[in-house]
Amino acid sequence: MSALEARLTVRRGNFTLDLPLRAGAGEVVALLGPNGAGKTTALRALAGLLPLEEGHIHLDGEPVHLLPPERRPVGVVFQDHLLFPHLSALENVAFGPRCRGMPRRAAREHAAAWLERVGLGDHLAAKPRALSGGQAQRVALARALAVEPRLLLLDEPMAALDVRTRPEIRALLRRHLADFPGVTVLVTHDPLEAMALADRLVVVEEGHPVQEGAPAEVARRPRTGYIARLVGLNLHRGRADGRTVVLDASRGAEPLRLHLAEPAQGEVFVAFPPSAVRVHRALPQGAGNRWPARVEAVEWQGDRVRVELEGPVQVAADIPPEAVAEAALTEGEEVWATLPAGALHVYCA
Amino acid sequence: MNAHARVPWVLLVLALLGLAFLVLPLAGLLIRAPWSTLGARLTEPQVLEALRLSLVTSTLATALCLVLGVPLAWVLARTALPGRGLVRALVTVPLVLPPVVGGVALLLALGRRGIVGRWLEAAFGVTLPFTTAAVVLAEAFVAMPFLVISVEGALRGVDRRYEEAAATLGASRWTVFRRITLPMVAPGVAAGAILCWARALGEFGATITFAGSYPGRTQTMPLAVYLALETEPEAAIVLSLVLLAVCVVILAALRDRWVSPP
């Protein structure tokens, strides 16, 4: 039996969240999705801060959706930490245990031990405003874990931190999540955060789960344009028949037929990295995959150049800067794109 | 070009006149004060009596306002009651109502033959008018809106997510209010309480109507000033100086909140 077994249905205006969610003890599930997908709504529903319209939340078989937030065995780490500004780090962490009936002295000792574990043993008396962003998020983690929850909820725990602090907090979270015996649900729109921390990803778009699986699997076989963009792949749908696949074309365009290295059959996804696409000014020799395209945009990205190609299908190509200079590529230019069959990754739709 | 040079002279002259109008009476008070006999006058029994009574009653009135006004402000700021607009209007009535009318209203409600007062006397043998308790009630009636408005504003400024965070940590609603909300609005409550106290200290109309002017029992500083003016002007000046000094102290205490420009 799963430690967490939930179906979250929340309606707000014309937005509907309808999300089934399961997780085993010790598992870290990341809800990954674009802004406005309903990830935070799901988290608030799990915490009891938002009522469920329908559905249920069972933790170890217990129906916790019937409980008010203060009675749920849940700990939450908020995006901008939300440490109580008038309480010291120690008092912030001791707050939860105190509310759950621990005597004052014991709660303070418990809190001090937790602050020690997140590396803030010498900041017990500090007020939140005296702490750096990373330190505040450490206290927030200690505060959430100090109530010994069975469900730990992390709401974009690194979004408010500066780029240099993130690796440090990511490492801290990894360490503590590995030790945490309960279920962790992490909400994020940062694929790196999700890949680094989660055992399983649930990709949410417009209030619904669109893909679920191990991070490496999701990264290798994206099933929506959103995930493909996140992991930096071109993604198209098509019909495969043996060693050829016909990609669904842009409106009005001739469908694009590509050769495959491995045979496939039926409705498929075709994914390939932008770096596999080559751009030529003249029709190249040979018999590989190629199609005429028009340059929509050229953008320098460090040591490579991202070229957006319009044609039978929309494709992003990453080419070396010298190739751009040689070919004198500019917007509006008519070009040829080539793509080796070996670079195509084909899987069932 | 200097910004001062652009002020139209008409506005400047009127502004200076306005300032003079506000400052001159106070200057008059200071100039006419019997500085040589000030010490002796301040220690006269009647003065000390009135001062003590004023401090005690305005402090009790403030305490009463805190106990009743903070919950009222919370209800106004946090609930979606249907008649909330009306409730807020009712709360602010004493702010604009002439205090004498407030006194008459208190008399009609809590007086010996008032709707509540009659019952109080029959049930408990309590009569309020013309007692020190009546002074406290009159002051609280007039001063409460200052507290409610200040605390309501502070409550509206609190980020509700802190309260949600406290709830997820296991805090009941009452614990959230006591340990999170109240400390976070403490500056607003303090400012409201000080304003409330100052208003109670200066209360005249409602007090004299509902509580009368009995030395030692209901004769507060403002009443003593008014009565002394007819018999002993110098005593009135001394009493006024004391009230002025209190006001200066309050302004100093609140200078960051109310006096400094936004």
Structure report:
The complex is a heterodimer of chains A (349) and B (262). The mean pLDDT of chain A is 91. With 349 residues, chain A is an alpha+beta fold. Helix content of chain A is 26%, strand content 36%. Chain A folds into 2 domains: 226 residues, P-loop containing nucleotide triphosphate hydrolases (Rossmann fold, 3-Layer(aba) Sandwich); 97 residues, OB fold (Dihydrolipoamide Acetyltransferase, E2P), CATH 2.40.50.100. In chain A, the strands form 4 sheets. Chain A has a 6-stranded mixed β-sheet with strand order 6-7-8-3-9-10, with helices on both faces. Chain A has 9 helices and 18 strands. Chain B has 262 residues and is mainly α. Chain B has a single domain, classed as MetI-like (MetI-like fold, Orthogonal Bundle), CATH 1.10.3720. In chain B, helix 12 packs antiparallel against helix 13. The model of chain B has no long low-confidence stretch (mean pLDDT 89). Chains A and B meet through strand 6 and helix 2 of A and helix 8 and helix 9 of B.
Structure keywords:
heterodimer; A: 349 residues; alpha+beta; Rossmann fold; OB fold (Dihydrolipoamide Acetyltransferase, E2P); 2 domains; six-stranded mixed beta sheet; five-stranded antiparallel beta sheet; 9 helices; 18 strands; 26% helix; elongated; B: 262 residues; mainly alpha; MetI-like fold; 14 helices; 0% strand
CATH superfamily of chain B: MetI-like
Write down the oligomeric state.
heterodimer
The CATH architecture of chain B: Orthogonal Bundle
Could you estimate the helical fraction of the residues of chain A in percent? 25-40%
CATH class term of the largest domain in chain A: Alpha Beta
Rg of chain A, alpha carbons:
25 Å
Mean pLDDT of chain A: 91
Q: Give the count of structural domains of chain B.
A: 1
pLDDT < 50 stretches of chain A? none
Class of chain B in CATH? Mainly Alpha
Indicate the structural class of chain A: alpha+beta
Question: Which pair of chains has the greatest number of interface residues, and how are they split between the two chains?
Answer: A-B, 22 and 19 residues
Query: What number is the mean pLDDT of chain B?
Result: 89
The largest sheet of chain A has its strands arranged as: 6-7-8-3-9-10
Helix proportion range of chain B: over 70%
